[in-house]
Amino acid sequence: MTTTFETPLKGLVGDKTAKALASHLDLHTAGDLIYHFPRRYDERGEHTDIRALEVGEQVTVMAQVQRTTVRPMRQRRGQLLEVTVGDGTGGTLTLTFFSQPWRERDLKPGRWGLFAGKVTEFRGKRQLNSPDYVLLDDETATSEVEEFAGALIPVYPAAAAVPTWVIARCVRVVLDTLAPPDDPLPASVRAERGLMGLDSALREIHRPGSRESLARARRRLKWDEAFAVQLTLAQRKHRAADWPARPRPCRDDGLLAAFDVSLPYELTDGQRRVGEEVAADLAAPHPMHRLLQGEVGSGKTLCALRAMLQVVDAGGQAAMLAPTEVLAAQHYRSILELLGPMARAGELGSAAEATRVALVTGSMGAAARRAALAEVASGAAGIVVGTHALLYEGVDFADLGLIVVDEQHRFGVEQRDALRAKADQPPHVLVMTATPIPRTVAMTVYGDLETSVLSQLPRGRSPIASHVVPAAEKPAFLDRAWRRLREEVAAGHQAYIVCPRIGEAVTGDEDEEAPPPEDASERRPPLAVLEVAPLLADGPLHGLRIGVLHGKLPADEKDAVMRDFAAGKLDVLVATTVIEVGVNVPNATMMMVLDADRFGVSQLHQLRGRVGRGSAPGLCLLVTEAAEGTPARERLDAVASTVDGFKLAELDLEQRREGDVLGAAQSGRRSHLRLLSLLRDADLIRDARTDAMALIAADPELAKHPALAATVHQLVDADRAEYLEKG
């Protein structure tokens, strides 16, 4: 019988095993199993570092039996077998078996084996309770032992019901009958890059003959992952270049020119460069697809507004899509404020009508909504700002020429396509993010987009000082922080206090804004806005004007709170991460992030960008109970040490589990980025990108190859960037 990637496992490994592989590891076909690569490789006589094991981990360890003890159990009848295994460097682990004293005959001192189970701790000692195991020098030579005949022993990502040796046995069964797969890489690429064939690579990664052949196999399979993604992105880019779009050229005497003259400050060099890139794209007969990433406060909104005015000059409309009503309202007010002085000065002449700005959100009243939609449909509103409400039926544009998507990772592909469909021809698209993206992530996630980067802050922006406040170790530091906040308010400034959670007073899924806890065993829940605000009002911030903002407030209340804070009617705003992006209050000079260890690196960087937006220096205090020396504390120290978002993005990537950076977040699937490291394989990704661009230019249909298409389906996201989603 010949096996192909599509062959169901049921007919190869038996019903029971196939069912376990499907239910516990989501492996259904021969191809699924063959691409379930080993997590690591042990070598006979080598040890696993037992001291590095963490409680709660499901592990497979290679260790040697040191001693066994059988004794009566205290609480019930029967005997307890305790087996001590070691790794040769002093690390030990206890294996416990209840009412199975006969296992002592197999587990004799000196024997090596693989032991699989969940790490627990009892009286300060780590142990595995009733682990599965296979002895590697078993004289009975069971079928499981045969899987480890080579020097290198593959250890697979496994489950309690499917240990690594069962997976290894199933892999051997499949490999013994697997027909050599069609190699999707052109022979010219394989020869130029020194890559082994696909069939050899798949066999060597499961049953390597040597470390050298294993390294060659891993390199080939990493290349496939990188190449598949780059080929698909290159194909998208190639096709987009063939789409027709209405050119929106720049005018010397239009709204944009008048707006630039009216600005009370000069554009930064970066803003000028980005403006030139965007202007050239908009003037082309093919749709712009550009990513604008910039540091917090670098002036992305101004760049977007200049692009929108260029489109309005050319007779079209521009829509800005924001992920939340708070951010949409903020953009609306910011755009009106930027355009206001120019319009009032009468510099626009008869064209002033075209600068009308409309706001469309889901919570608008019926009358306001009808009026806004009428302006959008007639074309009177040249600029339309809105949330997901822009996607609904009944929102019609006269001539949609440009879509600006802010914080684009919060929108799915279908949502962006729904807005594109409201234009007669493919509109130009500018997507923006304030989350700095490492170079390799940008190449891998956004490879089909042209990229512009704003790293220079506008003149007049003030520096932001960041410090970690170790509340548990030094309570006096926290007391000083509250006094420091009162000093800022006394000086006429305002402050943010950020909490991870909304609080118990909100029913239902009240904690959906909270970041997930790092450790499920944490003793106390994250601090909550609705619990912290009254404590502060009665305690260290007594007498100050305190407002509360979170995502579950009705839209009109959220807007009222933000208006009051922006107008200086509130001294302190206690909020969730709803203020993370877009909120611009130049008089807010201080931020305290409570339980800061509950947030990601990029998220903390985004949050502190809300201060230091005026002429006064900014201060960000990261309050934490995380102990010195822990990963959480080291992460906060790193955030406090630099305001360079791109350095922090690299740190963020280093600390994440490889393979979780890309993923189909909307589909609920885990990423299938199995081997490729976006941090360590930058050169490989760059080379794969070069080859993919050249090959797609020669053969646009190459990405449809079945083997590549399968990899692309697993790697190219449905929601673009889980990387940003987890920021």
Automatic annotation (TrEMBL):
Q: Which residues form the Helicase ATP-binding domain?
A: 281-454
Task: Specify whether DNA repair is a keyword of the entry.
Answer: yes
Stretch forming the signal peptide: none
Ranges where the Helicase C-terminal domain occurs? 477-654
Is this entry keyworded DNA-binding? yes
User: What is the name of this protein?
Assistant: Probable DNA 3'-5' helicase RecG
Q: Which PROSITE patterns match?
A: HELICASE_ATP_BIND_1, HELICASE_CTER
UniProt keyword list: ATP-binding, DNA damage, DNA repair, DNA-binding, Helicase, Hydrolase, Nucleotide-binding
Give the InterPro entries listed for this entry: DEAD/DEAH_box_helicase_dom (IPR011545), Helicase_ATP-bd (IPR014001), Helicase_C-like (IPR001650), NA-bd_OB-fold (IPR012340), P-loop_NTPase (IPR027417), RecG/Mfd (IPR047112), RecG_dom3_C (IPR045562), RecG_wedge (IPR033454)
What GO molecular function terms would the record report?
helicase activity
Coiled coil, from the record: none
Report which gene this protein is encoded by: recG
